[in-house]
Amino acid sequence: MKKKIKYFIYFLLLFFFCNSLTAQQEEIDSLRISLITAKEDTTKIQICRQLCFACDSLFYAEEALKLANKINHPKSIANSQFTIGVYYYFHEKYDNSLDYLIKAKRLAEANGYKKLLASIYKFIGFIYRPNEPNVAIEYYAKSLRIFNDLKDEHAASYILSAIGNVYEGTYGIDDDDKGEHNALEYYLKSLEIRERVGIPAEIAASLNETSRMYEKLGNHTKASALRQKGLTIAEKAGSEENIIYLCNLIGIDFLKLGNYNKALEYQLKAYKLVSDNKNKNYTVMSEVVQSLAYTYSELKNFQKAAEFYHLYIVCNDSMKARTNNVNFINLKHTLATEQEKQNLLIKDVEIEKQKAIVDKQIVLRNAFLIGFALVIALVIFILRGYRQKQRANRELDITNKKIENAYRIIEEKTKAITDSIHYALRIQRATLPHRSDILAALQHSFVLYKPKDIVSGDFYWFAQNEQKILIAAVDCTGHGVPGAFMSIVGSERLNDAIRNENNPSTILSLLNKGIKASLRQSENAESTRDGMDLAFCSIDLKTNIIEFSGANRPLWIIRKDSTLIEEIKATKVAIGGLTKNDQYFETHTVQLQKGDTFYIFTDGYADQFGGPEGKKLTSKKFREILLSIKDLAMKEQEKHLDLFVENWKKGYEQVDDILIIGIRV
Question: Which of 13, 272, 433, 509 is the most exposed, fewest CB within 10 Å of its CB?
């Protein structure tokens, strides 16, 4: 009985797969017939452009361009060049894509093809966005002006969303809250249009984007409400992509609030959808399985946490492997192109014969569907009886011995994972400098270090030579075990960088190259973005001169008799990730006076949720705290900061690692 059911299910899946392929092939066959029967050259060009994407074949787009050049029709030439550019973009050949888009742009600008020009500007913006965000915004702005002139609100909403993506900080062009406020402004404009036009899937996407900005700006309640609203709309629209994103974010919201079972409910829903999709998006899956690993860890289910963390590593490896598959993919497309050339050689075949074949296929399919419907009714009856019998057998098979064995296995694996993480803590502690060494060199100082998990992604670093004292506060990508791995790599690369250098700017540049080499990163958009932010200081105690260089982390100074915090901004680029190999980091020289105090820190303290309203503490509140304790001894300042954040987060989980270093000269 089991074998019969299994074979029938295989047959059922095969039927639906074949039926889907038949519908797709019918569309392609219809376009090919239209191409053969078309009389106007401009119509043939348009059909070839459609076939380019229907068959995923560059050959048709190139044939369209040849025919457009032959009849010397400027608009058809520009459209064909644009089609080739878009084809190359979706196949990640960005240099080739940009060449054809620029050609199409020149022709469209010269002849005033506004609608085409707006689309060209949009795709050029897509290409520049990862590495040249300012250039991308210029092209988006041009595209937006044209769509507004054409009163095409639907298209304009996409451009507003794309500009918001840039300002959100994904590609890092703005300072602190400014970029987040700009991103929110553009996302709200896009949302307003989409709600007016009334396309549910796009409304859900905008609510997702807008919620992210409210979250970053500390309005957790608003962000959570928008995500719930977006999920309801996405489920009604059947927008699987938005359901995945929103379920994962809502799960993370509940995770931060300590409601782990509710978090798990939403995250597992996102995981099922993303894992069932035949076209795996490993970037999205990586985010989902990573958040599931954190949730299972908080639930003390370390076996599941380890399984999903392993999946997270596999997803990252798969994303890296995509780069190695480029030549293989190009070979497949070359073979497909040759096949399409052969297919076009059948132009002499009679059209009526092709129509007759298609009609025969339709008759056979309809007959099959009628028979299939009758079989389905029988199968449903059989399956119902089979499931009832199977359920009864399962209940009889469960024994106390199996239950005890399952508990024993879980306890053993949990202990093994916990022991491994504690051993990792010993390794990480060994790489950190002794605080006694820091106090011996800097008597009036403190280091407040509070990892979120057993091990940490934040670390402090210290070195001393005959001339100067070097100290840094570093925030690596992630926290817990992934962050700890990064911290060990970062500490080693810093030690390498200072062997022959004292200048902070040069040290950070060498660190950037070292991290990219260790993680095998490149400037390609597909490369991993793991890296770190840090604040680095070189201190001359004889002259009280500080040389500071930072990567996304600032230096704060409180002068002896001042009631203000003086901020020295960092270079707005991270160490590692998509950073350029020759990235320059600016050095600032500051003259301090006896009694002045300065601080370097990561973002964990300001980002902690808590207080009476469950909001983010924020950088503004952090400044106020430091100013209120500026006259205390440095050890007392450390105790005050520690006690304040513990009281602030009461009832909430710690969201990130915390590191603050304070030094008084």
Answer: 13
> DSSP character for 472?
E
Strands 469-476 and 566-568 come out as: unpaired
3-class state of residue 545 by DSSP? strand
**pLDDT tens digits, one per residue of 591-605:** 999 999 999 999 999
Instruction: Tell me the CA distances in angstroms from 132 to 127, 135, 163, 260, 308, one per residue in order.
Output: 9, 5, 13, 40, 35
pLDDT tens by residue, 85-130: 999 998 889 899 999 999 999 999 999 999 999 999 999 999 988 8
CA atoms within 13 A on the CB side of 52: 27
* Phi–psi pair at 445, nearest 5 degrees: -155, 165
CA-to-CA distance for 216 and 181, rounded, in angstroms?
10
Tokens of 94: 């960005």
DSSP 500-520: S---HHHHHHHHHHHHHHHTT
Three-class secondary structure of residue 416 per DSSP = helix
Tell me the backbone φ, ψ of residue 647, rounded to 5 degrees: -70, -35
What is the phi/psi pair of residue 598, to 5°? -130, 155
Q: What type of residue sits at position 636?
A: E
Residue whose C-alpha is closest to residue 664's, from 498, 501, 480, 539:
539
Phi, psi of 57 (to 5 degrees): -135, 125
Confidence of residue 224 (pLDDT cuts 50, 70, 90): confident
Nearest to 528 by CA among 328, 329, 312: 312
Question: Residues 541, 469: contact at Cβ < 8 Å?
Answer: yes
Rounded CA separation 575/579 (Å): 7
Mapping DSSP onto H, E and C, the string for 67-125 reads HHHHCCCHHHHHHHHHHHHHHHHHCCCHHHHHHHHHHHHHHHHHHCCHHHHHHHHHHHH
Instruction: Give the mean model confidence (pLDDT) for residues 199-204.
Output: 86
CA distances from 241 to 38, 209, 275, 443 (A): 38, 13, 12, 55
Distances (CA, A) of 134 to 88, 131, 419: 23, 9, 48
pLDDT surpasses 80 at 275: yes
Strand, helix or coil for residue 595? coil
Q: Output the CA torsion sign for 92, 98, 103, 104.
A: positive
Cβ pair 483, 530 in contact under 8 A:
no
Closest to 249 measured CA to CA, from 270, 235, 234: 270
In angstroms, the CA 148 to CA 154 distance is: 10
pLDDT digits (tens, 9 = 90+) for 508-521: 999 999 888 888 87
Q: How far apart are CA 220 and CA 222, in angstroms?
A: 6
> Residue for token digits 């209120």?
628
Q: What is the dihedral sign for C-alpha 50, 55, 56, 57?
A: negative
State the DSSP string of 1-50: -HHHHHHHHHHHHHHHHHHHHHHHHHHHHHHHHHHHH--SHHHHHHHHHH
Spell out a b/e string for 333-347, using b for 16 or more CB atoms within 10 Å of the CB, else e.
Answer: beeeeeebeeeeeee
Tokens of 365: 């399919």
- Nearest-5° Cα angle at 599, 597 to 601: 170
Closest CA to 556 of 603, 623, 636, 503: 623
Q: Output the pTM of the full model.
A: 0.48
